[in-house]
Amino acid sequence: MREQVIAHKVGGRGGGARRSGAVAQRPVRRDRDNDGEGIGTRLRGVVSYLPSFLKIALAIVAGVVVFAGYRAAASASFFKVRNIEVQGTSRVSSAEVQALVRRDVEPSGVWKADLPSLSAKLEKLPWVRSVVVSRVLPDGIRVRVSERVPRAVVRTASGRFRWVDEDAVLLGEMLPTDQIPPFFLRGLNEDDVAVNRTENRERVQKFMELQRDWDAAGLSERVSEVNLIDIHDIRAQLAGDTSQIEVRLGSQDQGNRLKKALEVLDGQRQTAHGGLISYIDLSQGRRAIVGLVTGAQAAATNGSEAPVAAEPATAEPALKPVIEKKPDPRSATIAVRNTRVVTAATTAAKSRDKNERDPKPRPVEKKQDKTQKTARRN
User: Fold this and answer.
1) Is residue 361's pLDDT more than 80?
2) Domain parsing of the chain, residue ranges
3) Does 152-309 carry CATH code 3.90.1150.10?
4) Of 265, 231, 232, whose CA–CA distance to 246 is shortest?
5) Which of 67, 144, 173, 218 has its CA 20 to 30 A from that of 50?
6) Among candidates 323, 245, 256, which has minimal Cα distance to 286?
7) Tell me: the pLDDT tens digits for 252-302?
8) In terms of pTM, does the model score above 0.90?
9) Fold for domain 84-147?
10) 94, 69 in Cβ contact below 8 A?
């Protein structure tokens, strides 16, 4: 008899479904994270077996190595400053900035440079408002400068002309190549005190306001400077052939008052006393008081010709200089002689007055007195 071997079917070739009990076998993946954790765990395990004093010694050695490496890197030659970049300068001297940076950074090097202290030193330079200093490793320093913007030219007490910004900080002197402003500012307090700085800022702000208004009205060309010593008593000195005339504008509405004052001046200059005008006072409002150099005043309203008033003007005539002369010997001798003559004459006059008050007795009267005395004796 033949033996029949029946093979068990695992699955159909035509895509039939596998038996539900079949399990697919896949290769086992190696977990690398577990390997890393294993290394760390093993290291901690090794360290845990070390004595405590050995752990402390290792920590100290590691700290010393790190500190020595830092000092070596900081003092290395490749941190020596070689390149200084300056940006944003127009009026500030780039050479001056570079010299200050090099002088401050060279002793310590770029790595250990004190940037806040360097910034404070740079901000003390004229025209510098603020700076930003940064390192450009390994051997560079970058300086970005923000300059102050000039707003007015101030005539100082010494007669110098210097620029100021909106914070009333005195900047450099006005150069011949600078554009001349329409008029100057006078009256800035030059003492560097907190109160004075606040008042000076108010003066500069008022100056900028006047300049803006007078430029718009076309009046700036007729003014040479503005006196802001007292911000509540503003005065303008005129320009050109009327530079000797001062216009007193008061504390408000300076634009309209200056316009009226110029109208009054143009009308008064056609009169006989037009060349004698010293000032025009419009500080009280509508009524304009025209002061003359001769000591008289003229009152005008709305630009009409005004009669001369009886009030004296504030202008005073200049005093004549006193010239000292060297003494003349002849003059001194003559003066001594004159003094002696006067003294002798005075003495003689006193003697005459005394004689008149107390006259001397006559000789006859003396003889009578002697006779009377002899008779008495007998």
Assistant:
1) no
2) 84-147, 152-309
3) no
4) 265
5) 67
6) 256
7) 999 999 999 999 999 888 888 888 899 999 998 778 899 988 655 555 444
8) no
9) Ubiquitin-like (UB roll) (3.10.20)
10) no
